[in-house]
Specification:
This protein is mainly β. The chain has two domains: 133 residues, Beta Barrel (Lipocalin); 178 residues, Jelly Rolls, CATH 2.60.120. The strands form six sheets. Strands 4-5-6-9-10-11-12-13 form an eight-stranded antiparallel β-barrel. A hairpin with a 2-residue loop joins strand 11 and strand 12. The radius of gyration is 21 Å and the shape is elongated. It starts with a helix and ends with a strand.
Amino acid sequence: MSFQYFSRSLGLLVFIVSFTGVAAGAGGEAFTDPAKAGPDFGLQGEYKGSVETPDGVKVYGAQVIALGDGKFKVFGLEGGLPGDGWSRGDGLVTVEAKSADGKIAAEMERANLVIGNGKVSVLVNDQELGTLKKVERKGDTLGKKPPKGAVVLFDGTSAENFDDGKLVEGKWLGATNCASKKKLGDHQLHIEFRTPFMPKSKGQGRGNSGVYMQSRYELQVLDSFGLEGKNNECGGIYSISEPIVNMCLPPLAWQTYDIDFTAARYDTDGKKTKNGRATIKHNGFVIHDDLELTHGTPGRHGEGPEPDSLFLQNHGNPVVFRNIWIVEK
């Protein structure tokens, strides 16, 4: 085979595997328990490793996303994973595949890929040129305790700080169109969320919710693992801006948003004089850097001078939240 061709192809290749779920959703089942998620659940996820090429050993990333009934879509990334060696605009190639006997076999024109047992093997004429091992990334603020002076909105013991708040499984806050009783102006927010595993669902029907800053600006929550990263996908601010990089982790992984929010300013007549702004980290990576919030987003309240609530949107999917606290500025 042509090593030059192989290097180009693999450099664009990241694997994403989608699989099947359990609670009924718009496109199928929605799993919230990994033990009940089915045999494909263990194949999904992120992989990273090295492959021998004519130019030496190079690092590659892979993501695996499940589509239900043993079907998978495989994308490839040269240099590593999003936020870890790969950036928006770098090469990307898609390979579709199916699982059998607990493994995924994907045939390329010049090489074969075998995914299983926690790794991706890259084979040419049955010779292994490299291995990508499965990784489970976590945001560097996952589980972070509130600092001194912070206001805790949810610590897993009670939903009393939210109007229409409901406990799920006795310890998580459900996405139930609940709003914090505390009204917020300028603040820093830490919030952790988990999307369900919904392999047969697509697009906006797959783990959909939203974190509304000041009830006015929606930061999307969605199972966008392996997608392009648009403004209506995870990390996007609906109708305003797509994230710098799609840092969405696989479904059922706990993820973090850390938000530094500055409210819009108004004069004494109620006329807006300055737009709001936000710097946002998703799983520890900056996805919006001092972004100007040019207008409110649909779904909750319009813009205004008064403080307003943190709002967590219900979109019919079993999304849950935990460890929510703010520091007022």
